[in-house]
Structure formats: structure tokens, C-alpha cells
Design brief:
Length: 193
């Protein structure tokens, strides 16, 4: 099964399109903040959360519950695609329904391998994977630059300068795409990639 969670009007052919609003005409109506979710354990092969996570989980316990449910319903090796507005872009701030900024690296907190490495080196980072009993491997993050910054790159601005701008300024990146993989089967623990 493939779940397109919070599909809104963006339906995906061959997926179960899920939304809490009947006006979207989803295949299935479900509120992602109403836990537990209606799908069985390890029943999902792929999940799309396209401009969804920034709208849910304003309360920390609710957000962490959503993460736990995401892990529970997915099988080992399931792929999760997340797209969110960049937390320092006006598109995030303008929408009154956006309740949670999402940073790609926040998903490292849900990696057992990363949590164990943090423990080994004495990091103060919160080992949420160990606390919650979940495990996600962070596969990649892609940043979609605003047209102005794409043009600056095209005109010869260095990638290093753009990367510095991303870390420093607002309205450089519009959206982020994050790819995670669900880990359920025991895997060898080594240094994080």
C-alpha cells in the first residue's frame, strides 16, 4: 500500500489518497492527529507527505505521536517522501495553518544509529529514536531555491556562497524535500554516514 497523506487536491494515481476534509474527495478520510491511525502495522510500502507536516503536531506529544504512527504503519525499508516549505521562507510564515517548522536535520533525532553515536560522544541532542522506539534512516534532503537565487547560481555565484546564504538569510530556499527510509529489521550499527 502507498499512502498519500494529507493529499488535499493533489491526488496520486495508484496511491490511497488520504485527507481529513471530505471536500478534497480523498479515497479515505482520516485526521493524522487522531491517533492511532486506521492502518495495520507494517502495511505501508511508501508514504508521501507533500506540504503536510508543517500543518500538524503543534503540540509536541501530538507530533511525536504522528512520527510513531508513521513508523508503526510502515514496513521495513518503506520510503517516506516529505516536502515542506523552508522554515525561513515567507511562504512558511504567511500561512496561518502552519504550526510547526520542519528542518531536514530534525529527522536525525529519529535515527537509532545517530542516537547511539550521540550517546557515545556525549552529545546533548535528544535521542528521540531511543525514547520512542522508532528508527528512520535519513537518506537525503534537497533544497529548492527561490528563482532569484537560482539566477545568481546561473550567473556564476559559487555553490559555497549560496550554501552560506541558505544558512544565514531568509527567502533563499522555498521548499525542502526529505527522503527517509523506515528501519525495522536489525541492522549493523556503525558510524553514521
Amino acid at each position: 500500500m502507498k499512502l498519500n497523506l494529507g493529499c488535499g487536491m493533489r491526488k496520486k494515481e495508484g496511491w490511497v489518497n488520504v485527507d481529513k476534509f471530505a471536500a478534497c474527495e480523498p479515497d479515505q478520510i482520516a485526521d493524522l492527529e487522531a491517533l492511532p491511525w486506521p492502518w495495520p502495522d507494517s502495511s505501508v510500502d511508501e508514504v508521501a507527505l507533500i506540504h503536510v507536516l508543517e500543518h500538524v503536531g503543534q503540540q509536541v506529544d501530538t507530533y511525536l505521536g504522528i512520527i510513531k504512527e508513521l513508523w508503526r504503519v510502515c514496513r521495513d525499508g518503506a520510503r517516506i517522501e516529505i516536502q515542506v516549505p523552508h522554515f525561513r521562507h515567507d511562504n512558511f510564515v504567511i500561512d496561518p495553518t502552519h504550526v510547526r517548522p520542519i528542518h531536514p536535520e530534525s529527522f536525525l533525532h529519529f535515527s537509532v544509529q545517530r542516537n547511539l553515536e550521540w550517546r557515545r560522544v556525549g552529545s546533548p541532542a535528544t535521542p528521540l529514536a531511543l525514547y520512542l522506539g522508532v528508527d528512520f534512516e535519513f537518506k537525503s534532503a534537497r533544497y529548492d531555491l527561490t528563482p532569484e537565487w537560482v539566477e545568481r547560481l546561473r550567473q556564476g555565484m559559487s555553490q559555497a556562497d549560496v550554501s552560506q546564504a541558505v544558512r544565514t538569510y531568509s527567502n533563499v530556499v522555498m521548499d525542502c524535500e526529505i527522503i527517509l527510509e523506515v528501519v525495522k529489521a536489525p541492522r549493523p550499527i556503525g558510524p553514521p554516514p
